[in-house]
Amino acid sequence: MQFNQCPFFARILFCAFGFSLAALLPCRSGEGPKATAQLADAQWQAAVLMLEKGQTLCEQGDVSRGLFWIARSLELAPAGDADLRRVIRVNLGGWREQLRPVRGILSHIGLTFAVAISPDGKKVVTGSYDKTARLWDAANGRQIYCSEPFGNGFLCVAPLPDGRHCLTSGKDGLVWLWQWKE
Fold first, then answer.
1. Torsion over CA of 144, 146, 147 and 153, rounded to 10 degrees?
2. Do residue 165 and residue 121 come from a single domain?
3. Burial of 5 (0-12, 13-18, 19+ CB in 10 A)
4. Contact criterion met (CB below 8 Å) for 57 and 32
5. Together in a domain, 46 and 84
6. What distance in Å separates the CA atoms of residue 144 and residue 125, rounded to the nearest whole number?
7. Could you say which of 61, 128, 133, 139 would form a disulfide bridge with 147 (CB–CB 3.0 to 4.6 Å)?
8. pTM of the model
9. Which of 8-12, 67-71, 93-97, 98-102 has the highest mean pLDDT?
10. Are residues 84 and 134 both part of a single domain?
11. 80 in the same domain as 24
12. Which has more pLDDT, 90 or 40?
C-alpha cells in the first residue's frame, strides 16, 4: 500500500506515535521525494491536531493534560517550520502559568498501592506495601500520622466523612477501622 493510499487518520496515528512510514512502505523508483513530502505533510498535520487538542484541554481546565499534548506537538512539528514551532512554544509558556506546583511528596518506604482524599479535601490517606497507612495534610504534604506496620500491606484506604476515621483493607481481605491520632 502506498503512503498516499493510507487513510488520513492512519497517517496521523503513525506519525503521532513516532513510526517512520518511510521505512515500512515500499517505494518504486522516483517516488521517494513524493513519499517524503507526504510524510512531512502528515507530520505537520499531526502536530497541528495535537496542538489544537492541547489548547482545547487547557481551555476546559485540564491544563496538565493539555500541556502534554502541546509538548508532544512541538516534538512532532517539522524542524523547518519556525512559525508553527513558535506558536507551540508560546502556548506552552502561556498555559504553564496555570499549573499548580507540587506541594509535597507523599512517600512510603514500600510501594504505595492506595491513595484517597478525605471528603473535605484537607487530608490524604495512603496505604502501602510497607504495611503502613499514613495520613497527610493535603495543603502542604506534611505527614500527620503513620500507623504501626500491620498485616500484609494496604491495598485500599477510604477516609470517613468525620475526618477522624479511615477504613483500610489488605491482601488478607479484612477491613479495619482506624482512628487517626493527630
1. 130
2. yes
3. exposed
4. no
5. yes
6. 10
7. 133
8. 0.47
9. 67-71
10. no
11. yes
12. 90
Which cell goes with 84? 508553527
Give kind and range of the element (H or E) at residue 39. helix 32-59
Single out the residue in 51, 69, 96 at which a domain terminates.
Answer: 96
- Over residues 34-89, the pLDDT tens digits come to 888 888 889 899 999 999 999 999 999 989 899 999 999 999 999 889 999 999 99
Give dist(CA 128, CA 157) in Å, integer.
10
Handedness of CA 96, 99, 101, 104 (dihedral sign): negative
**What is the b/e burial string over 90-121, where b = at least 16 CB atoms within 10 angstroms of the residue's CB?**
ebbeebeeeeeeeeeebebeeebbbebebeee
Question: What is the count of structural domains for the chain?
Answer: 2
What is the span of the domain harbouring residue 26?
3-96
